[in-house]
């Protein structure tokens, strides 16, 4: 949402005095005539360029003072139409940015106050709130740390209204912003944690897990915060039914730093082990599963699917018998097809079942990790394919030669 490129232009028609009076008129529109006159009068006096005063257009300090007093009076979105609200705030932002550099403390102070006003407004007009904040986000330099404050407000509003999907947030957006914004690693961590918490609250746990990987990566690996976050992300990966790729976890320094924890040894089982290793681990550490709310039944399902994926990976282009699958998964022969269908649905294996031959023909399979052994297996298959293609080419060349001799 904050990446929108269709934000309305900030109009700047009229003099400074005319624009300020226009803003004041919007703020005071619901007051009676007497109150409105009393409200506007001090500003009108300040705008006048009497004897001994510079014209307001030439007096920057006076313009700053008038703007500061006007900003204090902004206490909500106002009662205008969406277009009027958007135009009002665009003009306010235009005056702030025309009087102060983007990186000045005044800009931060004024914008923080406006962000609090917008987020705290009881108005349910979410679309115009998003629009105003998106316009502000896009009007700031790409490297500005103020973009962080703006987007955190957008995220806060969306989360509080159960409207997170409206943001259409993507990991690529977040990665791009974090590489552009001139903010500290700690600020990056806080922002990513806010995103994680937002998706957890929205019960989009898989998305929350993906951002958790980014969050853990920004933490100081040896910190207590990193240890807690690392154990939490391991538990989440094991807990979620759709997470089968554990390799990314082993690329996080914070995760490696908890290698002496029981959850780390369980994670190693799911990267390289099978049912025997899982059962051995569970017999010694079952209380850990309860502590981290990881259901045993889900772990048993996942380790069986991963075991089947490993079997399939070592038999790509071949038939894998039902009996071999049943033996590897420690299930009855009658259950094999159910497990095959499950592993195909999980996107771990691609193949075709044959009840006639009681086998699964493997066309593709996902490796649980990609280390030296997997590279060697890939090399063997590539060599085999190259040899096969060479044989086909020889047949084609021979056929062409024979065809030419016949024609002659």
UniProtKB/TrEMBL annotation:
<dbReference type="GO" id="GO:0016282">
    <property type="term" value="C:eukaryotic 43S preinitiation complex"/>
</dbReference>
<keyword id="KW-0396">Initiation factor</keyword>
<keyword id="KW-0648">Protein biosynthesis</keyword>
<dbReference type="InterPro" id="IPR027528">
    <property type="entry name" value="eIF3m"/>
</dbReference>
<comment type="function">
    <text>Component of the eukaryotic translation initiation factor 3 (eIF-3) complex, which is involved in protein synthesis of a specialized repertoire of mRNAs and, together with other initiation factors, stimulates binding of mRNA and methionyl-tRNAi to the 40S ribosome. The eIF-3 complex specifically targets and initiates translation of a subset of mRNAs involved in cell proliferation.</text>
</comment>
<comment type="similarity">
    <text>Belongs to the CSN7/EIF3M family. CSN7 subfamily.</text>
</comment>
<dbReference type="GO" id="GO:0003743">
    <property type="term" value="F:translation initiation factor activity"/>
</dbReference>
<dbReference type="GO" id="GO:0001732">
    <property type="term" value="P:formation of cytoplasmic translation initiation complex"/>
</dbReference>
<protein>
    <recommendedName>
        <fullName>Eukaryotic translation initiation factor 3 subunit M</fullName>
    </recommendedName>
</protein>
<comment type="subunit">
    <text>Component of the eukaryotic translation initiation factor 3 (eIF-3) complex.</text>
</comment>
<comment type="similarity">
    <text>Belongs to the eIF-3 subunit M family.</text>
</comment>
<keyword id="KW-0963">Cytoplasm</keyword>
<dbReference type="GO" id="GO:0033290">
    <property type="term" value="C:eukaryotic 48S preinitiation complex"/>
</dbReference>
<dbReference type="InterPro" id="IPR040750">
    <property type="entry name" value="eIF3m_C_helix"/>
</dbReference>
<dbReference type="Pfam" id="PF18005">
    <property type="entry name" value="eIF3m_C_helix"/>
</dbReference>
<dbReference type="Pfam" id="PF01399">
    <property type="entry name" value="PCI"/>
</dbReference>
<dbReference type="InterPro" id="IPR045237">
    <property type="entry name" value="COPS7/eIF3m"/>
</dbReference>
<dbReference type="GO" id="GO:0071541">
    <property type="term" value="C:eukaryotic translation initiation factor 3 complex, eIF3m"/>
</dbReference>
<dbReference type="InterPro" id="IPR000717">
    <property type="entry name" value="PCI_dom"/>
</dbReference>
<feature type="domain" description="PCI">
    <location>
        <begin position="204"/>
        <end position="367"/>
    </location>
</feature>
């Amino acid at each position: 949402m904050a990446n929108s490129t269709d934000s309305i232009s900030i109009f700047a028609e009229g003099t400074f005095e005319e624009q300020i009076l226009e803003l004041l008129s919007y703020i005071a529109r619901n007051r009676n005539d007497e109150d409105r006159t009393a409200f506007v009068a001090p500003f009108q006096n300040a705008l006048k360029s009497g004897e001994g005063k510079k014209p307001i257009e030439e007096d920057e300090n006076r313009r700053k003072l008038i703007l500061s007093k006007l900003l204090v009076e902004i206490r909500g979105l106002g009662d205008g139409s969406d277009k009027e609200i958007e135009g009002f705030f665009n003009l306010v932002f235009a005056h702030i940015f025309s009087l102060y550099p983007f990186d000045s403390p005044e800009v931060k102070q004024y914008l923080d106050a406006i962000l609090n006003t917008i987020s705290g407004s009881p108005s349910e007009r979410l679309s115009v709130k998003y629009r105003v904040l998106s316009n502000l986000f896009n009007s700031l330099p790409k490297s500005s740390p103020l973009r962080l404050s703006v987007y955190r407000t957008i995220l806060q509003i969306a989360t509080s209204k159960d409207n997170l999907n409206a943001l259409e947030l993507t990991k690529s957006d977040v990665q791009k912003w974090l590489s552009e914004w001139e903010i500290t690693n700690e600020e990056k961590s806080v922002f990513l944690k806010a995103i994680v918490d937002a998706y957890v609250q929205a019960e989009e746990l898989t998305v929350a897990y993906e951002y958790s990987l980014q969050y853990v990566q920004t933490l100081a690996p040896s910190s207590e915060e990193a240890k807690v976050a690392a154990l939490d992300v391991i538990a989440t990966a094991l807990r979620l039914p759709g997470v089968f790729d554990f390799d990314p976890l082993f690329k996080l320094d914070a995760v490696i730093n908890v290698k002496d924890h029981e959850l780390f040894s369980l994670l190693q089982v799911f990267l390289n082990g099978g049912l025997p290793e899982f059962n051995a681990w569970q017999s010694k550490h079952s209380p850990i599963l309860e502590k981290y709310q990881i259901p045993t039944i889900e772990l048993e399902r996942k380790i069986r699917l991963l075991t089947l994926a490993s079997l399939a990976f070592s038999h790509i282009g071949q038939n894998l018998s039902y009996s071999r699958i049943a033996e590897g998964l420690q299930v009855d022969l009658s259950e094999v097809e159910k497990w095959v269908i499950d592993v195909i649905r999980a996107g771990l294996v691609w193949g075709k079942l044959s009840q006639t031959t009681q086998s699964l023909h493997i066309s593709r399979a996902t490796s649980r990790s990609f280390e030296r052994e997997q590279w060697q297996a890939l090399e063997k298959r590539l060599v085999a394919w190259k040899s096969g293609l060479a044989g086909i080419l020889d047949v084609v060349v021979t056929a062409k030669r024979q065809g030419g001799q016949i024609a002659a």
